[in-house]
Every structure is written in structure tokens, then in C-alpha cells.
Specification:
The protein is an all-alpha fold. The chain has helices at about 5-25, 30-35, 40-70, 70-90, 95-115, 115-130, 135-160, 170-190, 205-225, 225-255, 260-280, 285-315, 315-345, 350-380, 380-395, 400-410.
Length: about 425
């Protein structure tokens, strides 16, 4: 089999990233609004959302080790199948228990999906060009992600406004479309993701090799203070994400008076926000050139937390949505910078594990944050919870200090 060049692998990576995140855009914000519409409380929704994170927390290391042991492609195909299943269960759920089942399936999907595609691209790119720059292609993929989520969010808002299914909630059709798009992603993975030939993988081989890969990743974490700092950043970053992913639609519902009204506004607003995310992702080369990768990542973490606070204190729906857009602008710039730093701390044999450790900490922090912030929003107001999340998240900039010191030593050397 002819090896892929870096440029061809990048084109496939960008396409697959786009298709992977398009269905998430179509239902963006509605994952909170649908159970709210079906009678669940904010505290119950917080527990549901945390279930997904705790499942991810438990499975990230085994799935990351499995991806390093048997390859990225099998895990991506399994993830696509579970994405379809979890979306269908969520769509028909009426009770807390069925919603919980959907979120558990979603957690397994997220654990399988969290690192293999990016790890596949980085391995392929570095095999073709060992000194290849990673910031720019990761930025382009993140920009494509933001653009497709923007398109998906606009389409989701349009589907809610269209509401062509009599007798059903206006929030139903976006989830049907989302399930179909996840199925398309699975088909494209089967066609486009190519890996070096491996021996036929047996179940016994997977059971034997996965713990070895996990131990290799954990040894890397123990040896590298830079990697530990990068992973720590996720604790704070994830709390900020709760504010603009889960609390923003709740705050908008409070301001506009109904879930359907909030969904109709939130779709176009999310499209604009994800467009700003794409702009932020595209700007990483400029920001990195001025501050260096670690300095730029630190600046984006501080700015992101600050604009989340702005989102909370802004007056009315307009103030909320301005802060929301700026949060996504800085969020988009921060991601590629963070991941490029992460990849330089690992090799091919531990790359998926490093991404999984990063994602595991993010998922665990996200779940714990939901258990605190959603009840806080119910006891006080969504506005108070948003401001608290933004202020807390700025502390994550301290996690980049080891990488910043390493950067300065490299420049001096």
C-alpha cells in the first residue's frame, strides 16, 4: 500500500474532522434543551451530562491504549456506530433513566473518538516529514471544525424554525439529521483512513497489548512535567466550556421565556460563534509567531476566561451573545496551540494515550464542574454560575508555565 503524503493526509483529516463535528453542530445547545422541555430539572440535567464525562473518565486510558495497540481505524468505526445509537436513544428518551442510557452510550463514543483521528494524522504527517510543523495543519482542521459546526448550528436552528413534523417537538428533527450524519462519518472513515499493515489482531492480543500501551503513556506523564502541566490546564478549561456550552442556552431560555424560542435564536448565534471559532483557529500561526506556542496558549487561556465572565455580566440577550461569540473566538485559537504542545511531548507509540490522558482529565473535570455549576445555577441563577466558571478558568494559564520555561530554554539554546 502506497503511503499517504503529509498534504494528502491533511486533506483527509480536515474532511473527516468536518464531517465528524457537523452533526454536533446540528444539535448544538439542544442536548440541554430537549430534556429540559421533557420535564427534567437543571440539577437532573447536570447529573446526566456528568454521566457522559464519568464514562469518558473511566474509558479514556483503555481506549487510548487500545488505539496505540491495534490501530486508530477500528476505534473510529466503533465510535461512529455508537454515535448513531446514542443519538437515537436520546431522541426517544422521555425519562431520566433513558436519557442516562443515551449519555452512557455517548460517553463510550466520546472515549473511543477522542484521540485516534488526530493521532492518525500526526503519525502519517511525521512519517512523511519528520520535522513537519503541526500548529498550522491542526489550526486548519480546527478552523474546518468551527466552520462546519457553524453551518450545522445554522441548519439546526433552521430545522427548529421549519418544524415540519406535526405533533412532535420542534427539537426532534435536528437529532434525526444528526444520526444520519454520524452514519456518513463512519462510511468515510472506512474509505479514507489508511494505516500501515498490521498483523491480524485477536482479542487476546488486544487484551495483552492495551495495558502495555497504557503503562507507556503513564510513564510518559510521570517523566514529563510539561505534559503534566498541559493536562492540568484541562481542569480549568473544561469548567469554562460548561459556561458557554451548557449554561448559555439555559440563560438564553431564562431571558426569552421558552426552550423553543431559545433554540431558534441559539442556532444562528451558535453559527456565528463557531465561525469566530474558525477565525481564531486560523490565527494561531500569527499569535504563535509573536508569543511562541506556550506564551500564545497562556494568553488565550486568560482571554477565554475573561470573556466568559463578560458573557455572564453582559446586559440582556445581546450582551450574553456577544460574550458567547468572543468565548468561541478565543476557544478556537487555544485548541491548536494546546494540542501542538501536547504532540511534541509524545511519540507515535504513546500519541493516542497522551491525547486520551488529556481528554480523560477534561472529561472528569467537566463532570465534576457540572455537578457543582448546574445546581448553583438552579439555586442562584445561570448568570452567577457563568461568572464563577469564567473566573475559575483563568487560573488554567498557570499550567502552561513548564512549557513556557521549556520554550525559553530552547530559544536560549
Amino acid at each position: 500500500m502506497r503511503a499517504l503524503t503529509r498534504r494528502r493526509a491533511e486533506r483527509r483529516f480536515v474532511l473527516l474532522t468536518s464531517v465528524r463535528w457537523l452533526p454536533a453542530g446540528v444539535t448544538f445547545g439542544m442536548v440541554v434543551l430537549l430534556p429540559l422541555e421533557r420535564g427534567l430539572s437543571l440539577a437532573e440535567i447536570g447529573v446526566l451530562m456528568s454521566l457522559q464525562g464519568f464514562v469518558v473518565l473511566g474509558l479514556e486510558l483503555p481506549t487510548g491504549g487500545l488505539a496505540d495497540a491495534i490501530g486508530r481505524r477500528p476505534l473510529l468505526l466503533a465510535a461512529a456506530a455508537l454515535a448513531v445509537a446514542s443519538t437515537c436513544v436520546f431522541l426517544v428518551a422521555e425519562s431520566f433513566g433513558v436519557f442516562a442510557l443515551a449519555l452512557v452510550l455517548q460517553g463510550v463514543f466520546r472515549a473511543l473518538d477522542s484521540g485516534p483521528l488526530e493521532a492518525w494524522f500526526v503519525d502519517t504527517a511525521l512519517a512523511d516529514e519528520p520535522d513537519a510543523d503541526l500548529d498550522a495543519p491542526l489550526g486548519r482542521a480546527a478552523a474546518a471544525l468551527g466552520t462546519t459546526i457553524a453551518i450545522g448550528a445554522a441548519a439546526g436552528g433552521a430545522l427548529v424554525a421549519w418544524h415540519p413534523i406535526p405533533g412532535a417537538s420542534a427539537l426532534v428533527l435536528p437529532f434525526i439529521v444528526s444520526a444520519a450524519l454520524y452514519a456518513l462519518f463512519g462510511v468515510l472513515v472506512a474509505m479514507l483512513v489508511r494505516e500501515p499493515p498490521r498483523e491480524r489482531v485477536s482479542f487476546a492480543f488486544a487484551v495483552r497489548e492495551t495495558p502495555l500501551a497504557m503503562r507507556g503513556g503513564l510513564r510518559l506523564l510521570r517523566r514529563s512535567g510539561v505534559l503534566r502541566g498541559l493536562v492540568l490546564v484541562e481542569v480549568f478549561w473544561s469548567v469554562a466550556m460548561i459556561a458557554f456550552e451548557s449554561l448559555a442556552p439555559v440563560r438564553l431560555t431564562e431571558q426569552l421565556g421558552s426552550e423553543s424560542a431559545a433554540a431558534a435564536v441559539f442556532g444562528p448565534a451558535s453559527a456565528v460563534a463557531w465561525g469566530l471559532f474558525a477565525i481564531g483557529s486560523s490565527s494561531v500561526v500569527i499569535v504563535r509567531r509573536r508569543l511562541g506556542p506556550a506564551g500564545a496558549a497562556m494568553a488565550m487561556r486568560v482571554l477565554n476566561g475573561a470573556v466568559v465572565v463578560l458573557m455572564g455580566v453582559g446586559a440582556g440577550p445581546v450582551g450574553l451573545l456577544i460574550g458567547y461569540g468572543l468565548a468561541y473566538l478565543t476557544h478556537g485559537a487555544a485548541g491548536p496551540l494546546h494540542n501542538a504542545l501536547l504532540h511534541r511531548q509524545s511519540g507515535s507509540e504513546t500519541r493516542a494515550m497522551a491525547l486520551s490522558i488529556n481528554s480523560m482529565i477534561a472529561g472528569g473535570a467537566h463532570s465534576l464542574g457540572l455537578l457543582v455549576l448546574m445546581p448553583l445555577a438552579e439555586a442562584t441563577s445561570p448568570q452567577v454560575a457563568i461568572v464563577a466558571a469564567g473566573a475559575f478558568s483563568t487560573l488554567g494559564a498557570l499550567g502552561y508555565l513548564p512549557a513556557l520555561r521549556q520554550q525559553r530554554r530552547s530559544v536560549a539554546g
